User: Fold this.
Amino acid sequence: MDDTVEEISPETEIEVNPMVHLVAPVVAIVGTMVIRKAVNSAYEKATGRVAPLPRDPAVPWGRALMWTVVITTSAAVAELVIYRTINMIGERRVPVDES
Assistant:
C-alpha cells in the first residue's frame, strides 16, 4: 500500500460533490448493518451458538462487553472505509480562481 501523501498544488484545490454528503451516510448505515449481520453469522458458524445480545440480562457481563467491542469496532472500521471511499470517488481537483 502506498502511504505517500499527494500534495495539493497552489493552483488546485479539492472539491467534493455535494451528493456525497447525502449518499455517504445512507451507504454507511447499510454497510454497518451488513457488517453486523456478517459478524453475527461468522460467530454462529464458528461457535454453533447464537451471537450474544448485550442487552440480555442472562448474558454474562464479560461476554456482553467483549461482543460489544467486536461489533462496534467492526462497524466503526466499516464506516471509516465507506466514508473515505465515497469521498475519494466524489472528489475532483479544480483550478483556484485567483481573481
Q: What stands out?
A: Residues 34 and 82 are 12 Å apart (CA to CA). Residues 12-92 form one domain. Strands lie at 12-16, 91-95. The longest strand covers residues 12-16.
